[in-house]
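Case study B.
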Amino acid sequence: MAEPKAAAAEEPEDRDLVVLSKRGDRAAFATLVQRYQRRVFALGLRYFRNDADADDLVQETFLRAWRALDRFEEDRPLAPWLFRIAANWALTQIEGRKRRPSEELTDEHHWQGPSPEEHTDASRLRREVNRALSELPEDQRVVLHLRAAEGLSYREIADTLDVPIGTVMSRLGRARETMRRKVKR
Amino acid sequence: MTERCHEIEALLSPYLDGELETADVRRVEAHLASCDVCRAVLEAMSAHDAALATSSAHRPEAEWDALAARVEQALDREQADRQRVDEALPAAAPRRFRWWPRTALLGTAGTLALAVIVALLVPWGGPSLVAPPVVLETESADGPVPLRPGAALDEVAAKEEAGFRQDSGSRLEEDLASAARPTAPPPAASPPAASAPAEAVGGLTGGRADESALKLQREKKAPAPVAISPERARQNSPTTPTDHATPTGDAAAAGEAAPVLREMEEGASASTFGLARDLEADLPVETELSRHGLGPAPPVGARSLAEARNWWEQQNPGDSLRDAARKADRGAALLSSDAEPDSDADAISDGRAVGGPAADSPSPEDRFLDDALAHARNSTDDRAAREALRVLSGDFPENRIRETAWFELLQREGPSALASDDSETVIDVARSCDAFRLRYPHRHDILELRARVWVHVARLGVERSCAGARQRVYEWRDQETSDLRKGEATVLRGALDRICGD
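Model:
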């Protein structure tokens, strides 16, 4: 495997990396993995609320992305496509668990801000908001994460989750309303 | 907070996201200019969003590196395993599907398979409908490649397996032994593979099952259960009449659709699944049966379907057609696990926002396959589920669907799912097991299943499969933690040695 970090001074565009990956360039794909694994993992945490499942989600997402790569148009943004793959897998897993209700999910993860955690109002709010988010129903959690943390448009979220735009809108409205009630200001 | 505030508050979330119409933006801004309460609500939402935007999942850098390495290793394993499979099975069968990125979406085979799946799914819960053996030919530039005839099942091996069954008493062994008995394949067992696509549909034409399906459709006046886009249909099927979507007798047809929808409303008929899907996709109804001269044109045209959908939505504002299909087919037990506290509000909102549930989704085939798979997996009608799983596990361009279907099928039936000497099919299953082994490296049941399937491949005399089977049996034995299971692996290895003449 090449050393993506060493060659990353110029930060190749996603598009170029996708084109190379489509030709079978594993090093290029590894760079994409490095670039997006945190975001896919974060989405996994919103779904599963534990590291182990989120790790599995990352692995499955990139395996599937690799297999399906030449169906992906390189001129389109990569993140929503990855999120869609991730969401499909996550929902399949969750549906399976509903039928086998033995597994308990816990939110073991710590969300942090951009710098090592400080004790400020901003950090306190961040903790409260993430705690409140983890208490929302899964569909609302994921929609709010994709919108607020990932900045996806309603259309992109709808495509990612395979739901109508109206559903995105209503889930977001409810999520924000609940969040506001839970987070003390 | 005033009544006006309640109205505006509902708009604040989309306003914050810049997703409101201009007129609503003006309304909101005019209100905000004079309302401190709503302004505070908006500021809170904005602050919470900002907090989420600056949150990231924290873990030590070494863990990120380890995760990336894990993905790399998974890709390595998969690549190596595929290579081993290809090397082990060079001439046994044409490549029926690709393991690597492909450019084509569903082709003719996929389209026809969709028709078959829906034909299977439609009557669930209603009159039993057994699918005839269906053959779906590979999309191959070289045309159909006849299978290398698999060797007949070895009687000696069957006896050995039977003896082994008595020893171990395991269900899988019984399954394996029954697979080894040279019995006729079950009704929808994997078919011989060398027939052309048109002939594949011919599989739908001659059997009593098709007559039943046609009769059912005539009685119910339901559209044929094929939900594919007209573009796709034309592209995939040059013989498809281009005028099939022309609505004829729409007014009457709308009247005919209503009783079906009433059935759906009552959750009384599982056969509404196909109709629900057609309605959901808002596609013109196309029927493979009538296309092949086996029945009248579908009674419900495109326009009347739209009308029927409107009727449905008016009657059931809190329920999407997708939900209705689920209710009809999956029953109350499943409903309880699917129930979402906000589903009613969602559906209402959906109707307002896009004029119907998921009508404009970019990949209806994907959604359909996922639904069909989930439907089959979740069905309480085991027989029907297995029939559908067989079709889904057939010659499908979607690896994901096929692999999962095979795995589900094997879990339900054990290796007896392979009651066929169709080596091509068996090799497909072996590949699926390999894929699942990679996906779930810690599951011993998959190790075992994979080893047994590979022994089956070897038993069929597939060239150079003995080495592949041996490797997988050894892997099962080596990684098995239970002494009892290790013993079974050893017995299986002995059987394999005899099969392979070692």
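Residues 113 and 123 of chain A are 7 Å apart (CA to CA). The remaining cases will be described in the next quarterly update.
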